[in-house]
C-alpha cells in the first residue's frame, strides 16, 4: 500500500509504503532516504507494537542527527582521516566527525535524498544514482535497497550496487530497536546475544586500530545472553571512549553465507528479534548520544531508549589489509542481505 507521507522543501511528494505479513507483522518504508520508518511486531499474544525509534515527520528527519531508520552509505561507519587511496589515487571525504568521516555525508547523505521507488510483491525497491566524484568517491554508481516482508515475520533488506570505477561500498541500516515499543523507555533490560567472540579494537573517535581482539572476560562479551545494561556503566577503557557500546563485532565462522548472528529479547513482552546476515560484522550501538530527540506519537527519545544492530563490513576496512575488502567496481558488484526476524 502506498500513501503520501509528506512533501520535501523543494516540493517533491514523499510516499510511505506499507509491507504486510500474514502473521501480523508489517513495515512502513519511505522513498525519502529509503528510511525504515516503522516496524510492527507481534508479541506472544499477537499484540502489535511499533518497535523502531523514528522521527515523527519529514521536518524532523531533515533535522535528525541520529540516523533513525536510515539507509547509510555508500560507506557506513567511520573512515580514519576522511580519506583513502585506491590504486595510488587519494580520495578525500567530508571531515564530519572530528578529523574522520562518519556515514559518508551527514547534511546531504543518502538518508536525505529522494529515491526512486519500484513496488513488487509485498516489497519495494528504492534506487538512486550517484555521479563520479559525488561525496568525494569514484565511479558512476547505481545503488538499490529492497525491503520485503514475508509470512514468517521476517523483514529482509537487500542491497545492490555497481560502479564503473573502483570505489568503496559498505551499506547498512541504522534502525534503533526497542522490542517493548518505540515509546517504552530504556532497553537496558533487553537480553542480547551476539555470535561474535571478537571485536575490532578502537582508539578515540571510535577508529579501529586494526586489531581483532577477544571479548572473553570483558564487558563486551555477548556470546551468551545477558542484559544490555548489565555492564554498560563498567570501568572499561574501550567503553569509556564511546560512552557505552558502540563497537563492531566480528561474526564467528564467517563464510559469506546468510546466517543468524544475533538475538535480542524483551523479557516483558516476550518479543524476540533475530538478526541474520551474510556480512562479517555487526555494530552494536546503544544510542549513547541520543538526547531529547522528537519521536513518533509524541514520544521523546533519550540515550539507551533503543539499540542498533548494524550489519556491515568492518569500519575503516579500507585502511586495514586484515579487514574485509570493501573495494568494488567494474569487475565486482556489491550485493548483501540482512534479515530481521521477529518471534
Task: Work out the number of β strands.
Answer: 31
Helix content: under 10%
Largest beta-sheet details:
9 strands, antiparallel
Rg over alpha carbons: 19 Å
User: Taking all residues together, what is the mean pLDDT?
Assistant: 97
Annotation field: number of helices: 2
Shape: globular
Strand order of the largest sheet: 12-13-14-15-31-25-24-19-22
Which key phrases capture this entry?
43% strand; single chain; 343 residues; Beta-galactosidase, Chain A, domain 5; nine-stranded antiparallel beta sheet
Would you give an account of this structure?
This protein is mainly β and 343 residues long. It has one domain (2-342): Beta-galactosidase, Chain A, domain 5 (Distorted Sandwich). It has helices at residues 58-63, 237-242, and strands at residues 2-7, 13-20, 26-30, 36-42, 48-50, 52-53, 71-72, 78-79, 83-86, 89-92, 101-102, 116-120, 123-130, 141-149, 154-163, 167-168, 172-173, 176-177, 191-194, 198-203, 207-214, 226-227, 246-250, 259-265, 272-277, 281-285, 293-294, 300-301, 308-312, 327-328, 334-342. A nine-stranded antiparallel sheet has the order 12-13-14-15-31-25-24-19-22, with no helix packed on it. Strands 1-2-3-4-5 form a five-stranded antiparallel sheet, with no helix packed on it. β27 (293-294) and β28 form a beta hairpin. It is globular and about 60 Å long.
Amino acid at each position: 500500500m502506498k500513501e503520501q507521507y509528506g512533501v520535501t522543501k523543494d516540493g517533491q511528494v514523499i510516499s510511505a509504503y506499507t509491507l504486510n505479513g500474514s502473521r501480523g507483522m508489517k513495515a512502513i518504508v519511505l522513498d525519502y532516504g529509503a528510511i525504515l520508518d516503522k516496524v510492527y511486531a507481534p508479541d506472544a499474544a499477537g499484540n502489535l507494537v511499533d518497535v523502531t525509534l523514528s522521527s515523527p515527520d519529514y521536518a524532523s528527519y531533515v533535522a535528525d542527527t541520529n540516523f533513525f531508520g536510515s539507509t547509510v552509505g555508500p560507506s557506513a561507519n567511520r573512515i580514519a582521516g576522511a580519506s583513502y587511496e585506491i590504486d595510488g589515487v587519494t580520495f578525500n571525504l567530508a571531515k564530519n566527525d572530528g578529523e574522520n568521516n562518519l556515514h559518508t555525508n551527514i547534511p546531504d547523505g543518502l538518508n536525505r535524498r529522494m529515491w526512486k521507488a519500484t513496488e513488487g510483491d509485498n516489497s519495494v525497491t528504492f534506487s538512486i544514482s550517484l555521479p563520479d566524484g559525488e561525496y568525494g568517491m569514484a565511479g558512476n554508481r547505481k545503488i538499490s535497497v529492497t525491503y520485503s516482508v514475508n509470512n514468517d515475520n521476517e523483514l529482509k533488506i537487500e542491497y545492490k550496487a555497481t560502479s564503473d570505477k573502483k570505489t568503496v561500498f559498505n551499506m547498512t541500516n541504522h534502525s534503533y530497536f526497542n522490542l517493548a515499543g518505540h515509546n517504552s523507555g530504556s532497553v537496558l533490560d533487553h537480553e542480547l546475544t551476539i555470535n561474535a567472540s571478537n571485536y575490532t579494537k578502537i582508539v578515540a573517535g571510535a577508529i579501529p586500530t586494526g586489531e581483532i581482539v577477544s571479548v572473553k572476560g570483558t564487558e563486551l562479551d555477548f556470546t551468551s545472553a545477558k542484559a544490555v545494561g548489565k555492564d554498560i556503566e563498567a570501568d572499561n577503557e574501550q567503553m569509556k571512549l564511546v560512552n557505552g557500546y558502540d563497537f563492531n563485532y566480528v561474526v564467528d565462522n564467517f563464510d559469506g553465507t546468510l546466517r543468524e548472528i544475533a538475538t535480542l529479547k524483551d523479557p516483558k513482552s516476550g518479543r524476540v528479534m533475530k538478526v541474520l546476515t551474510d556480512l562479517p560484522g555487526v555494530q552494536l550501538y546503544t544510542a549513547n548520544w541520543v538526547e531529547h530527540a522528537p519521536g513518533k506519537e509524541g514520544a521523546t527519545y533519550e540515550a539507551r531508549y533503543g539499540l542498533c544492530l548494524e550489519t556491515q563490513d568492518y569500519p575503516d576496512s579500507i585502511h586495514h589489509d586484515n579487514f574485509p575488502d570493501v573495494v568494488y567496481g567494474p569487475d565486482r558488484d556489491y550485493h548483501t542481505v540482512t534479515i530481521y526476524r521477529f518471534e
